[in-house]
Specification:
It is a single chain. Helix content is about 65%, strand content about 0%. The N and C termini lie far apart (about 40 Å). It has one domain. It contains 5 helices and no strands.
């Protein structure tokens, strides 16, 4: 089941990696980068490589013309920048704690 088939309420507070990934793709599609970065930081998945490898593995199983694959590939193309934004936001948050 792709992110398009998921109910928005199912993805409000995701904790499982695939749920976080689906929420990330919905935010990516709507260009809600700040929310996306916050979700990656709060979930703990944004800094490590494992989450992005899971996203890559999912992408590789989908046909080229698939919308979810295109979203995944776009998301993955900017992963280094996203990881840096997650780290930066994390550092800023700790400064104010």
């Amino acid at each position: 089941m792709g992110q398009q088939e998921r109910k928005p309420d199912d993805l409000k507070n995701p904790s499982e990696p695939i749920d976080v990934l689906h929420r990330v793709l919905l935010l990516w599609e709507k260009s809600k980068r700040d929310e996306l970065v916050s979700l990656l930081r709060e979930s703990g998945y944004g800094k490590g490589e494992v989450f992005y490898r899971v996203a890559q593995a999912v992408s590789e199983t989908l046909p080229i013309e698939n919308k979810e694959k295109k979203l995944l590939d776009g998301f993955l193309a900017g992963r280094e920048r996203l990881r840096e934004e997650v780290r930066k936001e994390d550092r800023q948050t700790r400064l104010f704690e």
